[in-house]
Amino acid sequence: HKSYVRRKYAAFQGRHIHSIPNLEQHIIHELTKGFSPEAISGRMKVLCKPWYASKTAIYEWLYSVWGERYCQYLFSRRMRKKKRKTKKTKKWIIPHRISIHDRPALHGYGHYEVDTIVSGKRTGSKYALVTLTNIKLGYSDARRIPNLKPSTLLKALFSLLAPLKKPLSLTFDNGQENRLHHKLNIPTFFCDPYSSWQKPQIENINKLIRRFIPKSSDVKTYSSQFVSAMIKILNNMPKKKLHWFTPYEAMLRHKLFRKIKKPPSSGGALRG
Predict the structure, then answer these.
(1) Which helix (H) or strand (E) segment is 179 a member of?
(2) Measuring CA to CA, which of 12, 82, 121, 198 is 20 to 30 A from 251?
(3) Which CB contacts under 8 angstroms, 24+ apart, belong to 48-57?
(4) What burial class does residue 270 get, using C-beta atoms within 10 Å of its C-beta: 0-12 exposed, 13-18 middle, 19+ buried?
(5) C-alpha closest to that of 19 among 4, 37, 32
(6) DSSP codes of every residue in 51-80
(7) Chain centroid, CA 145 distance in Å
(8) What's this model's pTM, rounded to 2 decimal places?
């Protein structure tokens, strides 16, 4: 009797219908007449039948092993529940967008690329990392941001650009977080969709950052101090293309800082 009561009030009512032969036979009979589950349920309520099943219970029974063969009598003949359409992110046209194909030749050392590193989807975190890289010298910097809102990214970019002389250009991807790029008052250019190879320098830096912040991890768990220490290590790595100077030393040689910064320490373990 306890088993019967549990089944009677169970969340899955498909088995409940199957356990009452008269109810099951009545539903089958009505389905063969072309009635919908909603109509069958409504008629049972109006005619005061000794048993009752809601339209949801009838659909659950139809999508189970007991009622699957009778799905052919449904108008849609669908044997599985239709998946709901996921809410798609509204796409906006990036205002004042200029293609990378219209970018002039990169003369000088003041050209930069911008990108973001996001937290893993399974973490449910909106935290991300904004990265900035000098195209020719490989000098990079990064900031943690709590979300990818355009206003949040703009604020982080102002912080990243503050110690630098005004860049000659910035290159972005087509993420919606870059919609306020024109407020930087700097010439900006955008890669083609799905063409990350058009900004190779920052993609390479992001690959190095992934050594410290692996994919699928939550950026929120890494402190700002951790990010700063990581950037100091990257900027003090000698580069072959810089004739084994470090990116930081190259930036000093070309006087790309607003003020002379103290040489950063390159040692020490990173802690989150």
Answers:
(1) none
(2) 198
(3) 50/22, 51/20, 51/22, 51/23, 51/26, 53/13, 53/16, 53/17, 53/23, 53/27, 54/13, 56/13, 57/13, 57/14, 57/16, 57/17
(4) middle
(5) 4
(6) S---HHHHHHHHTSTTTGGGGGGSSS--SS
(7) 14
(8) 0.64
Asked whether 158 and 170 are in contact (CB, 8 A), the reply is no
Q: Give the closest residue to 79 by CA, choosing from 91, 89, 67.
A: 67
CA distance 221 to 149: 20
Cβ-contact 14, 64 below 8 angstroms? yes
Q: How do the pLDDT tens digits run along the chain, 272 residues long?
A: 887 776 666 655 566 777 777 888 888 888 888 888 888 888 888 887 777 888 888 888 888 877 788 888 887 766 666 666 666 555 668 889 999 999 999 999 999 999 999 999 888 899 999 999 999 999 999 999 999 999 999 999 999 999 999 999 999 999 989 999 999 999 999 999 888 899 999 999 999 999 999 988 999 999 999 999 999 999 999 988 898 899 999 999 999 998 755 545 544 445 44
CA 268 to chain centre: 32
DSSP letters of 120-157?
A: PGGGT---EEEEEEETTT--EEEEEES---HHHHHHHH
d(CA 74, CA 78): 7
CA pair distance 109, 107, nearest whole angstrom: 7
Cα–Cα dist 266/262, whole Å:
12
